[in-house]
Design a protein that fits this description.
Blueprint: E1 7-8, H1 37-43, E2 56-59, E3 61-64, E4 69-72, H2 74-86, E5 100-105, E6 119-125, H3 139-148, E7 161-166, E8 174-175, H4 176-188, E9 193-196, H5 213-223, E10 227-231, E11 254-259, E12 294-297, E13 301-304, E14 310-314, H6 316-333, H7 347-360, H8 381-389
Parallel strand pairs: 5-7, 5-9, 6-7, 9-10, 10-11, 11-12
Antiparallel strand pairs: 1-8, 2-14, 3-4, 13-14
Helix pairs in contact: 3-6, 4-5, 6-8, 7-8
Length: 391
């Protein structure tokens, strides 16, 4: 039987900004290896979205004491700390304990030292039905590290109960139907937050007429009070399709753009179209649902790499996980708003959380209202938790 489901594809990104630097003991200085460029471009420049959307990866590790001590570079650690300060997460002592986050991606490699002590409570392979966790691309491992790393990089919510659904194979090509199945699994596994660092072109069918399979699955999760966070996309430069990616376009999903360490918009972050149009049909969007809703770290973000190294990545995929982690911290502080809490469990509770996001983010200078690139503003973790506590 022919499968007519729309697909989510990996495409090669040809940008002059991509560099690959791989090091080996006992060197302390990062050395460029041209022969590794093709591998990094093919294996680590991962585009989950239809169109020009992806991650640019820099592999950078540090050594000290003649190679005896191995870990991320000093630059990576400095950037990690700068991003923590930028979004106020360094002011928060919460760790996500008692909250369940589900990542839908390419899998997870538990052999990385940063992931050895995480609390993985569920795994499902929708690609090859392999029972044990693995990641034959690396993108999912990078996203997991932003959330739950516990060694050199401390993830934003390292103590969450983690669910991982592998919906995309090694080449990054996956059907919308498979992604939808993975989202449904997250919902049925009692996730509090679903993190989607992936996406595709909008279906062209409005959500109220059904939309795509993944959009429908996101809608089902939202109806149960599960917060769904999705990437805006990386086509903010040439080839921009003038809107964020699907399923981030779903009204009550939280769609995330990307910024650098100074809080400036990353040039590749996708723009939202909030005015409505006839073709493909889309109604105007209103507060607090204009897209993207907010921005978060997404340019040269410190990540873990699938081969046990560390590096930097740019893309709204990374930004998505920061927001997923922030929601997990908010749920830890205010568990009554979780899907199984006294105030949660419905789409109206998700709408309330989105209002808190709008009220707590930091707008860019001279910003008045929503900005089609910057959303309502920059993620502020401490302010979000405080705002939730006032309601």
């Amino acid at each position: 039987m022919q499968n007519d489901s729309p697909s989510t594809e990996m495409m090669e990104e040809d940008t002059p900004q991509m560099v690959a630097t791989l090091v080996a003991p006992p060197q302390q200085n990062v050395q460029g290896l041209p022969e590794d460029m093709a591998f990094v471009q093919k294996g680590l420049s991962f585009l989950l979205f239809i169109g020009l959307i992806g991650l640019s990866i820099w592999a950078i590790s540090g050594f000290s004491g003649g190679g005896i001590t191995y870990g991320p570079s000093a630059m990576s650690i400095e950037l990690h700390d700068e991003f923590d300060t930028l979004i106020q997460s360094d002011n928060v002592s919460l760790t996500g304990k008692g909250v369940t986050v589900c990542i839908v991606d390419t899998g997870i490699n538990l052999n990385h030292i940063e992931l050895e002590a995480i609390n993985l409570i569920g795994w499902k392979d929708f690609v090859a039905s392999i029972p044990d966790p693995y990641d034959d691309n690396g993108h999912g491992t990078m996203m997991a590290g932003i959330l739950v790393a516990k060694q050199y990089f401390i993830g934003l919510a390292p103590d969450v109960d983690l669910l991982v659904a592998k919906a995309l194979p090694a080449d990054g090509t996956g059907s919308d139907a498979t992604v939808a199945e993975a989202i449904d699994w997250c919902t049925n596994s009692n996730a509090d937050v679903i993190s989607l660092s992936l996406g595709g072109a909008p279906s062209g069918v409005p959500a109220f007429f059904g939309g795509s399979d993944s959009e429908e699955a996101v809608g089902n999760a939202l109806q149960q009070g599960i917060v769904v966070v999705a990437a805006a996309g990386n086509d903010g430069e040439s080839g921009d399709d003038n809107d964020v990616a699907s399923p981030g376009i779903v009204e009550n999903a939280i769609c995330v753009g990307a910024v650098d360490t100074q809080g400036n918009i990353w040039e590749g972050s996708s723009v939202g179209d909030n005015n409505g149009r006839l073709l493909p049909p889309m109604l105007p969007r209103f507060d607090p649902d204009q897209k993207p809703e907010l921005v978060a770290p997404g340019e040269q973000v410190p990540v873990i790499l699938p081969d046990g190294q560390w590096g930097l990545a740019s893309g709204t995929s990374a930004s998505t996980v920061y927001v997923s982690g922030a929601i997990a911290l908010m749920f830890e502080a205010h568990p009554e708003w979780k899907p199984d809490g006294a105030q949660g469990g419905s789409e109206s509770s998700v709408e309330t959380i989105k209002e808190w996001i709008q009220a707590s983010v930091k707008p860019k200078e001279s910003q008045n209202g929503h900005d089609d690139y910057y959303g309502y503003g920059l993620l502020q973790v401490e302010a979000l938790i405080t705002t939730a506590g006032q309601n």
